[in-house]
Automatic annotation (TrEMBL):
GO terms for molecular function: amino-acid racemase activity. Belongs to the HyuE racemase family. It comes from the Bacteria. The lineage of its organism: Bacteria, Pseudomonadati, Pseudomonadota, Alphaproteobacteria, Rhodobacterales. This is Asp/Glu/hydantoin racemase. Signal peptide: none annotated.
Amino acid sequence: MGKVLVVNPNSSAVVTQGIAAALAPLGDCFEVTDLPDSPATIASDEDVARAGLGFLELVRGREDAAVFVTACFSDPGLELARAALTQPVIGVQEAGILTALARADRFGIIALSPKSIPRHLRKMRMMGVEGRLAAELALDGVSAAASGTDPQVYEQVRGLAVQLGDMGAGAIVLGCAGMASIRARLEAETGLAVIDPVVAAGAMALGIVKG
């Protein structure tokens, strides 16, 4: 079976370890790495652009991988890599949203920061799914690592998930790869389908390598 190379485009070891832990139940075909020269949180459009170039540089040299995943919710480098490579390339935002659409008529997203929302909306317009978005709500600019480890941040995430449910979302997409560890608890406490975009992307990649 082919290898799936999952790249955390930031430099946070905590986030990288969380991604690896989230994917572990899917099997041993996943290799998880990060970009040490990137910031610890991808926050600005400039961060996304730089991370995208770093992602492309890394994956270009990995002919041994059957599938690549860019594991940041802004999908840095996705289009660049798809244009440059013959192997499939999956973005976690795309995968998370497509999985949410399979679970509910309308979905919501919890973003790390209000600054992230405009670029997420651009991507959804490109995907043609904006009409099924109930809303996207944001945390107040927390770090990627804190989004899945800080108890106070979890309470904020839970509150936003409840709001999204009240706004008509039947599925919630976690808008950061760092949130993987809170998915199951959030789903149990809210009664909503909660999608970890990393696992969604991993499942798609697994379908490709096993297909």
